[in-house]
Design brief:
single chain, 189 residues, 3-stranded mixed β-sheet
């Protein structure tokens, strides 16, 4: 009777250990993703507001280095975005598989083609910018810059005056990169 109880307790401990190890792996992946996001944000020199910097000494006093965490990762996650305040990001050309590796808080002339709107920074909608610079950039190669993420209705004329978004597309952030989950529908004028 005691042997059976010990076996059951050992199985329960092993199951709990397995669940905890899975959770630790998931948290390690999340931390790596957040560190990449922080690094990308730090590289943006054109950002209007710069987050408060936390010194390495304060990281050490908090004991964060024991867990491989930087203070920047902690401070970036301490201020969650309010769900009712959508933010907008400018997206450069997509990759052939429908991801947007380049995101900016400000429009970059000659580079920005799409506008992303998100409320939770994990899911969002996008539309093509109807500016002369975005149209000129998109027109360089419609098959490369537009078709991987948009369905084009009608004729894609050689020199459009406008690119109109008939239906916004949908994006989801995976491993710090925005990926198309539903293509936008556009037409050229």
């Amino acid at each position: 009777m005691f042997g059976k109880q010990n076996v059951e307790e050992e199985e329960a401990r092993e199951q709990l250990t397995s669940l905890l190890e899975d959770r630790i792996r998931a948290l390690q992946k999340r931390i790596a993703s957040l560190e990449k996001r922080v690094e990308a944000l730090e590289k943006q020199e054109t950002k209007e507001e710069k987050p408060e910097e936390v010194s390495e000494s304060s990281s050490e006093s908090l004991g964060l280095s024991d867990f491989g965490l930087s203070a920047a990762v902690i401070s970036a996650t301490d201020t969650p975005q309010k769900a009712d305040e959508p933010t907008q990001w400018y997206l450069a050309a997509p990759t052939a598989d429908g991801t947007f590796p380049s995101v900016s808080s400000q429009e970059q002339i000659g580079k920005s083609i799409y506008l992303l709107t998100t409320s939770d920074n994990m899911n969002g909608t996008f539309s093509i910018l109807d500016t002369s610079d975005a149209i000129a950039t998109a027109s360089i190669s419609i098959s490369q810059f537009v078709k991987p993420v948009c369905k084009v209705n009608g004729n894609a004329s050689a020199f459009p005056r406008h690119i109109i978004t008939d239906e916004e597309g949908a994006l989801t952030k995976e491993n710090g990169i925005w990926k198309v989950t539903r293509k936008a529908i556009v037409h050229f004028e």
